[in-house]
Every structure is written in C-alpha cells, then in structure tokens.
Amino acid sequence: MSEPGTITFEELRYLSMFTDLTGATAYRCIIDRENDRLIFIVKASDVGRIVGRKGRNLEILKKLFRKNVEVVPYSDDIEEMIRNLFPNARILDISIRERGDGKYVVVRVKEEDKGRAIGREGRNIKRARLVLRELFNVVSLQVR
Fold it and tell me: 37-42 and 68-73 as β-strands: parallel, antiparallel, unpaired?
C-alpha cells in the first residue's frame, strides 16, 4: 500500500486508460486489492456520463480492466465527500476530530440504514476508509 496522497504508476496507468475510454477526467484512481476493484474519484457532473444508460459504460470498463469499477463523485469538502461515499444511507451527523496523526471520523446514520452504509461484507465502509485515507488523511472511520 502506498503512502496516503501519492499516486502509484499502476494507478496512473488506470487513470490514463479511464480518461481515454470515457472522455472524463478522474481526480484519482484507488486500487482496492482486497475486493478486486478500482475506485475512480470523478467530477460530480461526469458521473452519469461515465456510468452510462443502465450501467453499460461501467460494464465495459469492468471487462477491459478485469476488475470491478466504482465511480464516486469528488468534493474537496470532507463532509460532502463522506455523503458522496454513502449515497444510500441517511446521514444524521458527521463528527470529525483532528489529532497529530490524522483525522478521526464518526458518521451517524439512521438505524435502518446502517446495513446499507456498511455494505455486504463491509464493502462500502472499506471503500470509504480507503478513499478518505487517500484524500483527507483519515486514520479512523466509524459508522454508528
């Protein structure tokens, strides 16, 4: 795993291919080896075009990259980025504490949305942790 905020050569290669294939610019590509997926952080206005009708473009990218592909709208505001990472969960509150080694985040969601926020086998929260670590130096993320 690379240092937070640094882009590896492999990520740069995926970013280049993604831009060539979609015509959209991704801010970052984060490789999630544990879940065999690529997470592209893109401009919010490009999400629909990237996904395509009925997810067709994502299916094409998935076949080309031979990995699952996920697209997340980018925001330079950490709270908005957290909301982008949990689109299917109704967020009640976001608490961010900063310490010397990074940020500690607690996201409170409606009780009935907790399962959606965490995701099957923790996939959603793992994605959020990876993205927030890379973009905002988040050391800890909890969903309550």
Answer: parallel
DSSP string, 5-72: T---HHHHHHHHHHHHHHSPPEEEEEEETTTTEEEEEE-GGGHHHHH-GGGHHHHHHHHHHTSEEEEE
- Read off the pLDDT of residues 124-136 as tens digits, 9 standing for 90 and up: 999 999 999 999 9
User: Any idea which fold 9-73 has?
Assistant: GMP Synthetase; Chain A, domain 3 (3.30.300)
Topology adopted by domain 78-143: GMP Synthetase; Chain A, domain 3 (3.30.300)
Instruction: Give the C-alpha separation, 137 to 144, whole Å.
Output: 20
Question: pTM of the prediction?
Answer: 0.91
